[in-house]
Amino acid sequence: MSQPPKVHPKPGQVKVVRALYNYSAQRPDELTFKAGEVLYVFDQTTDKDWWKARCGTKTGVIPSNYVECQTESVDAPLHEAARRGNLSFLRECLHQGVSATGLDSVGNTALHWACRGGHIECVRELLAQSNPPVNAQNKMGDSPLHLAAAHSHLEVLSLLLQAGADSGLHNNDSQTAEQLGSAAVASLLRLSRSPRARPASYTPDDYVDESD
């Protein structure tokens, strides 16, 4: 199986806020929105009074005082959705243009979090994005495969391997995913490297737990 080209995730956060009041755009670059609508803020630093945001399919600047009092905001919303296994919120973030390759403070992508939690549908959704960061390594050197292996999420491992995950990557402790997992994980990863013809996907019948 040919592997997709590696990507280099870029840092970046998006804040999710809820509008407190209605606002009608006064200039072409402004965004019209209604009280209660969810806004995805991409830039709060260029102008502290006017933030760049997206609402629905439209992007523009918004007056920060129309949302700044909102106490319930989420930094890195895609990561939060992946961590919690919230598929609907994850899809909404992707629909709103939140980058699937953004990094959190320790270098995790959303895919890292989905794999760590074993949230299989979130993993599927993230892998379906263009050029997913399947081999991205966080600041500890762990890839999504390392995290799935460490938590024995076998179905997630199967999806990652099909997407081109490199089972030979070492983390900062010089450990591969195989070294972090159970006997069943190790067996599955060895099977994935077998020179014989590989199945389209891996099932529980394709490996044995050598601890039994």
Automatic annotation (TrEMBL):
<dbReference type="Pfam" id="PF12796">
    <property type="entry name" value="Ank_2"/>
</dbReference>
<keyword id="KW-0728">SH3 domain</keyword>
<feature type="repeat" description="ANK">
    <location>
        <begin position="106"/>
        <end position="139"/>
    </location>
</feature>
<dbReference type="Pfam" id="PF00018">
    <property type="entry name" value="SH3_1"/>
</dbReference>
<dbReference type="InterPro" id="IPR036770">
    <property type="entry name" value="Ankyrin_rpt-contain_sf"/>
</dbReference>
<dbReference type="GO" id="GO:0007165">
    <property type="term" value="P:signal transduction"/>
</dbReference>
<feature type="repeat" description="ANK">
    <location>
        <begin position="140"/>
        <end position="172"/>
    </location>
</feature>
<dbReference type="InterPro" id="IPR001452">
    <property type="entry name" value="SH3_domain"/>
</dbReference>
<keyword id="KW-0963">Cytoplasm</keyword>
<comment type="function">
    <text>Induces bone resorption, acting probably through a signaling cascade which results in the secretion of factor(s) enhancing osteoclast formation and activity.</text>
</comment>
<dbReference type="InterPro" id="IPR002110">
    <property type="entry name" value="Ankyrin_rpt"/>
</dbReference>
<dbReference type="GO" id="GO:0005737">
    <property type="term" value="C:cytoplasm"/>
</dbReference>
<keyword id="KW-0677">Repeat</keyword>
<dbReference type="InterPro" id="IPR036028">
    <property type="entry name" value="SH3-like_dom_sf"/>
</dbReference>
<keyword id="KW-0040">ANK repeat</keyword>
<feature type="domain" description="SH3">
    <location>
        <begin position="12"/>
        <end position="72"/>
    </location>
</feature>
<dbReference type="GO" id="GO:0016192">
    <property type="term" value="P:vesicle-mediated transport"/>
</dbReference>
<protein>
    <recommendedName>
        <fullName>Osteoclast-stimulating factor 1</fullName>
    </recommendedName>
</protein>
